[in-house]
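Page 47, continued from p. 46.
Same chain as before, 289 aa.
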Amino acid sequence: MKVFHIEAFTNTPNLGNPAGVVLSADNLQEDEMLNIAKRVGFNETVFVHQSTVANFKLKYFTPGHEINLCGHATMAAMHCLKSNGLINENPISIETNVGILPIFFEGSSQELIRMQQGNPEFMPFTGSIERLMNAIGLSIHDLDSRYPVIYGSTGTWTVLIPIKKLESFNRMVPNNKEFPNILLENSRASIHPFCLETKYPDSLMHARHFSSPYSGTVEDPVTGTASGVMGAYYLNYIMSGTDSVKFTVEQGQEINRDGRVFVEANRIDQELMEIYISGNAVFVKEIEI
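Result:
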């Protein structure tokens, strides 16, 4: 089995977020896809299938289980398909577990990949914020109490934690095995701390992303779905009088995986938002499984 190693949210190999891409996966069973994802060992490996309702169907697996949607693996799959001459249209659509989503190729050489995500959902976090902060190596004093700690999803659930200072991110040490004992409303959610202080002047938010222990990984270097839901979080909780925002999320700097995610969020009505993320990707190598 040939697996393409692609880095997403960067133009530079060995930065950004690595994903495995399997282009012809129609004959693979779910246990086989999970086994391949375990052996590849990245946060996500994406499997490309034929679809009767879209251009392609994508299935996403961590080393521990299937997930409904993954931003960086989608970027990787689109780059891989286009580089191999398997995409000739613009835009295209992909079938996922959260529905059929459009993909656009932008820029002078169509190198920027833009994907729509699912309609954002939020759910209250009612557990101990002090235990939650301790589980990522911080104290309650590092929390930016102006904004809520809350579960959010545009396809994959995560807990969004506002942090006061950028320097706190260098002190973070996740205790992933404790997450399910703290996240009582959704024990399989990941944890996504972020702040409005940034390393680079063109960024609006800085973030890290700590994986659910069920996924078989510890940290996701640069996250697409969590960056997307931060666009909805911004409109709902930071600038609630605003109906549209575009900004850059920086992530991965603490683990030498510098990456950028471009986020766009538009409020359609009280129940509906359109969330888009954009990024680049680059081929690294082929892996034989």
